[in-house]
């Protein structure tokens, strides 16, 4: 089968990684066009590829390029909507990095446009669903051997964050991965959310509340406790324990050698999210490519992107007001039911 010809919109940090991945590492794709708001940025993206690559600064132009079969959107979130809507209008498959959009209303516009088009075209870049460890946990839970999940305990810790990171971003940038991944993991939906701000670490910059504890309940009654702690100093530390009626399933940590030295037995901890999830990006985009050729979307859909944003909005409201907030999606449209 011929290569899928990809146009990449947004040639920043992750855009450049995806260009290399799509052109060289994965099977069945080539990058034929790139776009960035600044021409210099687009040229840097094009320079990563051997061969002819069209360079654009205009989203509509790259989407309409006859040598582009599918789009990958890696601009900042505020520019996702224009690119994804243009791809839907052109009838081209589009992989959009998370978040789908920065507001639930914009995500809903994309959902409505995709349904109106009658074609499944949009996938959102929630890569945890492609992590080997999360997939192993899901397989065990789906086997039924552990019975119903009752409680999920998670940590999302990072060494430090820069001064631009805000209290809200603990939800919209960090917890957003658990917000998408956990309902998929335990086959459930969010019901209510709460965010507790307690004693702050002295390592947090002025105005940042850190750590935060998010308590979320699901429609099936499962309680999820998520600790987001982004100045933990010691490593990028992702944990997830699912307590079920007949046993407990724990997310495996990346394997490092256990070393014995100076009267201690120790194991390393990953240092950042790129290293922790590097393999999952390859799996995610390879599956998306294979699906796009078949005209299907088996990964996170525009609806999932909408629900994640709606849940994040409810959590931000709960964080600010100290309330428990309901997540009201209105129910999954028939178009997205699997
Ligand atoms: P970035 O380094 O800022 O790159 C974004 C690029 O898009 C920049 O080159 C920017 O140009 C360009 N751009 C801005 N507006 C544009 C427009 N209207 N049309 C075309 N290009 C435009 O950001 P990033 O860190 O790569 O993140 C990109 C997206 O990926 C974000 O949505 C982020 O949340 C997501 N992401 C996901 C993961 C994950 O784990 N799944 C990890 C990292 C990032 P200028 O710099 O000149 O504005």
* Rg: 20 Å
- The main sheet orders its strands as 12-11-7-10-9-8-15
**Tertiary shape:** globular
Uncertain stretches of 5 or more adjacent residues: none
In which range does the helix fraction lie? 25-40%
Q: How widely separated are the two ends?
A: 27 Å
Extended strand count: 15
Task: Tell me what you see in this structure.
- The chain is built from nine helices and 15 strands.
- It is of the alpha/beta class and 338 residues long.
- The strands form three sheets. The chain has a seven-stranded mixed sheet with strand order 12-11-7-10-9-8-15, covered by helices on one side. A six-stranded parallel sheet has the order 3-2-1-4-5-6, sandwiched between helices.
- Strand 5, helix 5 and strand 6 form a beta-alpha-beta unit.
- Helix 1 crosses helix 8, helix 4 packs parallel to helix 5 and helix 5 packs antiparallel against helix 9.
- The longest helix is centred in the C-terminal third of the chain and has 22 residues.
- It is globular and about 55 Å long.
- The protein starts with a strand and ends in a 12-residue tail after the last strand.
- Bound molecules: NADP nicotinamide-adenine-dinucleotide phosphate.
């Amino acid at each position: 089968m011929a290569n899928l010809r990809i146009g990449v919109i947004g040639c920043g940090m992750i855009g450049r990684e995806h260009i290399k991945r799509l052109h060289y590492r994965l099977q069945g794709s080539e990058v034929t066009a790139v776009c960035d708001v600044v021409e210099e940025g687009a040229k840097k993206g094009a320079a990563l590829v051997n061969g002819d690559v069209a360079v654009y600064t205009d989203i509509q132009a790259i989407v309409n390029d006859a040598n582009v079969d599918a789009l990958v959107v890696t601009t900042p979130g505020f520019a996702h909507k224009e690119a994804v809507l243009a791809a839907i209008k052109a009838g081209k498959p589009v992989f959009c990095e998370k978040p789908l959009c920065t507001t639930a209303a914009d995500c809903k516009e994309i959902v409505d446009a995709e349904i109106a088009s009658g074609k499944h075209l949009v996938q959102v870049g929630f890569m945890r669903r492609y992590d080997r460890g999360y997939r192993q946990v899901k397989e065990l839970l789906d086997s039924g051997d552990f019975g119903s999940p009752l409680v999920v305990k998670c940590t999302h810790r990072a060494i430090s964050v820069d001064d631009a990171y805000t209290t809200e971003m603990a939800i919209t940038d960090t917890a957003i991965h658990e917000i998408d991944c956990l309902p998929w993991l335990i086959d459930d939906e969010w019901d209510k959310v709460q965010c507790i701000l307690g004693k702050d670490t002295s390592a947090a910059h002025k105005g940042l509340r850190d750590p935060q504890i998010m308590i979320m309940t699901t429609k099936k009654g499962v309680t999820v406790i998520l600790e987001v702690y982004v100045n933990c100093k010691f490593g990028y530390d992702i944990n997830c324990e699912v307590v079920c009626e007949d046993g407990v399933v724990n997310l495996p940590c990346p394997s490092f050698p256990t070393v014995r030295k100076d009267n201690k037995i120790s194991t390393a901890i990953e240092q950042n999210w790129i290293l922790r999830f590097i393999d999952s990006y390859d799996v995610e985009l390879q599956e998306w490519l294979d699906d796009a050729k078949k005209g299907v979307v088996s990964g996170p859909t525009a609806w999932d992107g909408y629900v994640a944003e709606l849940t994040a909005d409810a959590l931000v409201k709960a964080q600010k007001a100290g309330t428990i907030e309901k997540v009201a999606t209105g129910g999954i449209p028939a178009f997205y039911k699997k």
